[in-house]
Amino acid sequence: MAGLRVRSLLVTGANRGIGLGLVQHFLKMPNPPQWVFAGCRDPKGQRAKELQNLASKHPNLVIVPLEVASPVSIKVAATTVREHVGGSGLNLLINNAGIAKITLLENETPEDMTETYTTNTVGPLLMGQAFLPLLKKAAQGSPGSGLSCSKAAIVNMSSIGGSITNPYAWEMIQASSYRCSKAALNMLSKCQSLAYKEHGVLCVALHPGWVQTDMGSSAGHTPPVTVDDSVTGMLKVLSSLSEKDTGTFLDWEGKVVPW
After folding, report:
1. How far apart, in whole angstroms, are the C-alpha atoms of residue 30 and residue 247?
2. pLDDT beyond 70 at 218
3. Interatomic CA distance for residues 113 and 204, integer angstroms
4. Where are the beta strands (DSSP E) in the chain?
5. How far is CA 221 from CA 154, 210, 253, in A?
6. What number is the average pLDDT over the span 200-207?
7. Residue 56 Cα distances to 21, 22, 51, 62, angstroms
8. Cα distance between the two ends of the chain
9. What is the CA radius of gyration of the chain?
């Protein structure tokens, strides 16, 4: 993790699970970021208590009201972040917020498909658009010509469930709307990598493992990976990424996941 040094980052869906774990790990770094922005839908609500407690102890942690399914909320969040970071920009955008509807294929509805796609795919698209100016500023202010997560990067939290080649755990969890949204997110990550490379921004899709979170356990099975192990692994992977990795789909151990 020594290679990952960011001045500022934003994590969406940061009030629990993997998002909260990422925030905690960044705050514990020997040289923590100057700004850690934690996006969540209801910063003052009961489900953000742990985040509130962290913010009371860490002045560099800023809780940002953010609903990634709302273009207006995203724009307001971008303004908030810009007011804090000024001309230095934002080094790292981690699109972690996501939802899953655990249903059989025959029970999928247009409403569930649309809601899941809006949060899991359209949200990261709009986040990338809104925060690109800040990512570009960070890239311009970083030394060196290569790409890295310490310079400027978008990390889209995907899932092996979105792999068309390897539809992991289909027998246990169909969740077609979730799988479709993550397959689309993988393509978005590739598109972002192609469009934003010229601006110095690295873009990857990352599978965190099947993690012991509310979402991971929602189908009634106990996932094999802890939040701590997943986040530790992902931060190690992020610290090692370079120009050759932009546009790839990797897991929390750094292995390539098949599209």
Report:
1. 29
2. no
3. 24
4. 8-11, 35-40, 61-65, 92-95, 153-157, 202-207, 249-251
5. 30, 10, 22
6. 98
7. 17, 17, 9, 10
8. 27
9. 17
d(CA 92, CA 75): 17
Asked if residues 92 and 153 have their Cβ atoms less than 8 Å apart, the reply is yes
Please compute the mean of the pLDDT values over residues 199-211 and round it to a whole number: 95
Residue 191 has a pLDDT of 98
Beta-carbon contacts of residue 205 (< 8 Å; ≥ 6 apart): 156, 158, 185, 186, 189, 190, 248, 249, 250, 257
Q: How far apart are CA 38 and CA 13, in angstroms?
A: 8
Length of the chain (residues): 259
Helices (H), 29-119: 49-57, 71-85, 110-117
Distances (CA, A) of 259 to 33, 150, 186: 33, 26, 8
Q: Where are the beta strands (DSSP E) in 116-175?
A: 153-157
Supply the DSSP symbol for 211: B
**Residue 15 structure tokens:** 């009030």
Query: Which pair of structure tokens corresponds to residue 206?
Result: 């990352």
Q: Enter the pTM of the model.
A: 0.95
Other Cβ atoms closer than 10 A to 63: 20
pLDDT digits (tens, 9 = 90+) for 44-99: 999 999 999 999 999 999 999 999 999 999 999 999 999 999 999 999 999 999 99
Q: Which of 84, 79, 66, 164 is nearest to 124 (CA)?
A: 66
Give tens-digit pLDDT for 116-132. Answer: 999 999 999 999 999 99
